[in-house]
Specification:
Layout lengths: L2 E4 L4 E4 L14 E3 L21 E9 L8 E6 L5 E6 L2 E7 L5 E4 L7 E9 L23 E6 L3 E2 L9 E8 L2 E8 L1 E2 L6 E7 L5 E8 L4 E6 L14 E9 L2 E10 L4 E4 L3 E4 L2 E2 L2 E6 L12 H14 L3 E4 L6 H10 L2 E5 L11 H15 L5 E8 L9 H17 L5 E6 L15 E4 L12 H11 L5 E6 L18 H16 L6 E4 L5 E2 L11 E2 L13 H10 L5 E3 L6 E2 L3 E8 L3 E6 L2 E7 L4 E7 L3 E8 L2 E9 L34 H5 L2 H18 L11 H8 L3 H10 L6 H11 L6
Parallel strand pairs: 23-24, 23-30, 24-25, 25-26, 26-27, 27-28, 28-29, 29-30, 34-40
Antiparallel strand pairs: 1-10, 2-3, 2-4, 4-9, 5-8, 5-10, 6-7, 6-9, 11-14, 12-13, 13-17, 15-16, 15-18, 18-19, 20-21, 21-22, 31-32, 33-35, 35-38, 36-37, 36-39, 39-40
Helix pairs in contact: 1-2, 3-4, 6-7
Amino acid sequence: MREIVSLNHKWAFTKEELPDPAQLPRVPYWVNLPHTWNAIDGQDGGGDYHRGACWYVKELALEELPRAQRYYLEFRGANASAAVYVNGRMLARHDGGYSTWRVEVTQALQARNVLAVRVDNSAGEQVYPQMADFTFYGGLYRDVRMICVGDSHFDLMYFGSPGIAVTPEVVGQDADIRVQVHLTDEKPEQKLRFVLLDAQGRRLAESTVDAAHPSWETSIRQPRLWRGRRDPYLYTVQAELLEEGEAIDRVSARFGCRSFRIDPDQGFMLNGERYPLRGVSRHQDRWGIGNALLPEHHREDIDLICEMGANTVRLAHYQHDQAFYDLCDERGLVVWAEIPYISKHLPEGVDNTLQQMRELIVQNYNHPSIVVWGLSNEITMGGENDPGMVENHRRLNDLCHALDKTRPTTLAVLSMCDIHAPYIRIPDTVAYNHYFGWYGGETSMNGPWFDRFHQEFPDIPIGLSEYGCEALNWHSSQPIQGDYTEEYQAYYHEELIRQIAQRPYLWATYVWNMFDFGADNRSEGGENGQNHKGLVTFDRRYKKDAFYAYKAWLSDEPFVHIAGKRYVDRVEAVTRVTVYSNQPEVELLVNGRSLGKQRREDHFFRFEVPNQGVSLLTALAGKCRDESRIRKVETFNESYRLREKGAVLNWFDVEAPEGYFSLQDKVSDIQRNPQGSVVLGQLMKQMVSNLEGKGPAGFEMSPAMMEMMGAFTVLRLTSLMGAAGAKVTREQLLALNAQLNRIPKA
């Protein structure tokens, strides 16, 4: 019978080149797995985090392993490329940092062994991802195990698969179950025994067949369906390889009986009923740990997602840990799974996209939570009409359907990509990443954009794969787009919630992101090295107010939450306080005095609160209660205001006289004014000149992109283009603002 031994303990680690992979490093630095060498430098925003090759070396005595005829090393995740050596002999190489892969080491093992793994997260052109808004952590950041089996066993070398694939199909009131297994070196006299179990371990069906015919078909009369968050019921199939009646190897797979379809008008349908997918995206890292997560981290993440009331999660932008897919099965979260084919098509990386897609599907085929395979994310940053990119999407789409005939494919499309771009028509469904109201435009633009798409393409299911805005511990009673305040983020998501709720045809919507995450190249918001669009902070210690806006909309667990708990000092004599609750009625008390009760259908309650001295706020909603405090101050507390580190010019330093233009006005408004158009043209000419040679090759300015740029304020546009290399100085911006200040808006 197979035995599995953890090899996570005591690896020698070095960033130096190892002259002899049959020897330990000269000065060993010992680590336990999971481990990444970028746990700190990949999150500090210095742009200098270590990307290169590092070595992990472990001594292993054969006597430490169970007796077996075959030995396989299993890597659950080695980012991004890895080469395996046993006693100095290179046995295998794997490209792709997010999937499981194995290498047989039987012939190379001796009484005393040195295992060495060279892991490399260097930049290149062949292994995805290479260009994306997240940190590419390096390391053996998931478990490493030794699988010990006999000569005959369930296949361990088919793209990291579990060796068993279960396909349930709901037919009327029953479910047909097809099971396929893969074997290695089976013998004519061997048998296969299949057993079907319910969630309590009771046997529902059993069959023994010749090993030469490694499949089984059975059925379940009136099965208990997998119903998402409502009832995520799981069955299990066990497969045993028998020799002379004794089991010599065993595998098993959990599965759920469910049917689903994605309708262009009704959205996502689960088991014949409308089941709107409303949820979040997730990255697999956290503060001070990087991507080397432990089981308790995965459990905490899914607990927070479920607390918020989400029923779906987009696991971006790569294959996640099997432990998290298992949790999604158990908790009923519907999953969008994808590969890191992102931002830029690499001609030399085509084979790698196909390999990663094959690994994603064969390793995750049995998870009932997964309903779509994502082909790519924002791949048109380098242009929409690259023939190689379009053809590669066709290949990926065909591969998905060849490997899995039960699930559709989808795309996450860059906001500026023209809706007529050829590659959008390839998958079965499509979704867009839109940030109207943050990177440009107004929040009100989101819903109408989808209405226009749905009207022009009524037969294409459309979803919202990303939306969000950044927030840190900055605060304002008059939040504005781009100020990074918690209050603007809450306002933004309230507006998006209203627009999504009015459009049931949206088959899925995903907040970007559930958690702040590492993005080493970022330097904004006052805390470099992170993307702060999360509803929860990077360390999972603080739920931002927007988290509770979604909890009020999506969750059935009774609660009430007073927003703005970190915004204590307030200048105004009467201040607005927002309360979120999923209860029909909320009452707010100030120092024990009631301001009255409110009933709101949208779950967002507003109270005008007298601000004198120190006030204790108490919100009551049914049996739920929450408290907060505010304090009257005479001058604004500057610790609440973002001063951008390294910023050329902060928004609040811009003079904006009433009735005249300034850097705080939209590009489109200034362009419509003849004088303003001339001044703006001079700025654009200067920025394009500075950008020459720094932009992506073949970059195209689509009409949608030009429209979005027009919705930016001039200051926001110069900040974003400055990050791309089109920098202008503070003096140039102040001089431009002085010119605009002389142009009347009339």
